[in-house]
Amino acid sequence: MKVIAMVLAFLLNCTFANKEVAKKNKKSKLYAPQIECDIKAARIMNPEFIAKCPPGCQDAKYRVYGTDIYASFSSVCGAAIHSGIIDKSGGKILVQKVSGQSGYKGSYSNGIRSLSLPRWRESFIVSEGKPKKGVQYPSILDYSSVKSPSVKGGTSLRREYLTTASPLPDTQIVTSIPKPTIMTREFVSTTLKPTALPTTVPTTVTTKVMMVATSKHQHAMHKVRDIGSSHVHPAYSSVEAVASRQIQAVQGRIQNQGIQRQEPIASFRKPASSTVNLGFSSKEDLVPKPLEPVSQGNPNCKVDLSFLIDGSWSIGKRRFQIQKQFLKNVAQALDIGVAGPLMGIIQYGDEPSTEFNLKTYSNSKDLKNAIEKILQKGGLSNVGRALSFVNKNFFDDSNGNRGGAPNVAIVMVDGWPTDKVEEASRLARESGINIFFVTIEGPDENEKQNVIEPNFVDKAVCRTNGYYSINVPSWFSLHKIVQPLVKRVCDSDRLMCSKTCINSADIGFVIDGSSSVGTGNFRTILQFVANISKEFEISDTDTRIGAVQYTYEQRLEFSFDKYSTKQDVLNAIKRINYWSGGTSTGAAINYAFEQLFSKSKPNKRKIMILITDGRSYDDVRGPATAAHHNGIIAYSIGIAWAAQDELEAIATDPDREHSFFVDEFDSLYRFVPRIIQNICTEFNSQPRN
């Protein structure tokens, strides 16, 4: 009986132990490590992981780049909210790393405005935080950043990589032996404590770690900023191999001595009483230095900028250096970055050549270093050829052109060009490139006879009012125009060459909803309105659309500032309900001016397109004349029983360009291309002063 009782007790203990183990395993599978709102995907080395986001990550300071697929330096939790996986209260998410994309499109979704980006080396996608069947997810995330999120209290770490190979003095370190991926030294303050410790305290091990360095440069070290890549630089690969062998040898000695091995923790603990001699010449070298924040650029100056610099022999070496210093000063003042201005440089002489394009450098520091390395090419001063090159090649999507940012070309000229610039400049302007000229030491009275094209600056720039041209009497005073030039370049409202006929108007539709129109024909009119609206670039800063419907009375369907995307405008047009009633066209024109066009932006062209199918019950001439005097360009579209004399009175002169008549509603669509063409022809004929 005793034997049976003992067997039963043993079986019960085993069953209980198995249940406990199962509970622990089940609990561990469900655990998701917490991450902070500012953690970017690039900082986490794991290719796939489940994590838990805290509440409050919808703040604009946690930047997100892309839509659905996000650049890896986006906030992980911000991207999860943008994609709709979680809301602002937080929650579990599943993150998968994917390859870099050639472009990331920004959008507004779930209360977060994501930004656009030309390209990035790594991406990620976010989905619901449910584990996939058969996949084991890490309970502790591997971070590549020098600032570990598990260390609190503002303590910073500095990771330095050895590149030399001679023996250093023995170092006494109280630590566990982590499995390194690269050979590093970690510096922490004497009060630093790891936040996550094992439940059992392991035996403390005092280990002598021999680090290999060359005898020629015993204490030389290179600081490397970790940018999130998991690859080891070739220069450190040999050091990594040596370090790995040494660590393995130490681990072997620990196991032979029967000492318990401690699992890796976030950092090493250094006793306050210990003194570590690492071969530094001063205590200042031991002070952790915070990483310099990388600017995303000035968001109030989002332009794509090309500098055409003079590399001709006439400029000389000394003045070429002054020109480069000027460029560096401008780069610093602009605050280069992916969310602000981007800048590329073309050097011209006999032929133009690209030094670097818009996507080569994304911060002012790297750009300034690149400018310093530019070498003078020599040759003539063929500015016209350089402008043709910019127009055909530089502002291309493959070179980093962002589309929504104005294109600006600043031409530096020493003296005067050796070819003609007028035709090349005209073609560039018509492509939407804002051309600025900075001329230094222009020709004097005796030299003007040598200039191939007199008044070449006025023939080249976007406007001839002096805003787009700056003359500097001497190279030594060039530094004085840095701030004035930057201010002009960043004032997007005055970059007139970026304003085209399809992105620079406030267009108000005034729609006849009288009883004679009928429900079916009214839908045909709305389709006509939508077809015209589709042809324009619609946003807060581009073309805006508004609509008024009228009978005896008037109704504002939506104002210019109501919708800021093309799709929203088209949806709003579909939702307009047919009213039915009389026809008071004159009162409708007055109403459109007071309720719609009076709120138009000063830099917008005001265009009214009125559509009616009959004669008005009131006078149209007085209201139409008042609208014309207030700068409204009026188009009148008449159908069926519309009165020709009223259509001509409503339309801006010349009538034949602004007034149209069609017998049937179904033929309205034929006038869409002609109306768009007339709007653009009128825009392009504006004077350049």
From TrEMBL:
It comes from the Eukaryota. The gene is VIT. It comes from Eublepharis macularius (Leopard gecko). Promotes matrix assembly and cell adhesiveness. Plays a role in spinal cord formation by regulating the proliferation and differentiation of neural stem cells. It is found in: Secreted, Extracellular space, Extracellular matrix. Its main location: secreted. PANTHER family: COLLAGEN ALPHA (PTHR24020), VITRIN (PTHR24020:SF23). Residues 31-124 form the LCCL domain. Keywords: Disulfide bond, Extracellular matrix, Glycoprotein, Neurogenesis, Repeat, Secreted, Signal. Residues 304-485, 506-675 form the VWFA domain. This is Vitrin. Pfam families: LCCL, VWA. One of its GO terms (biological process) is positive regulation of cell-substrate adhesion. PROSITE patterns: LCCL, VWFA. Residues 1-17 form the signal peptide. GO terms for cellular component: interstitial matrix.
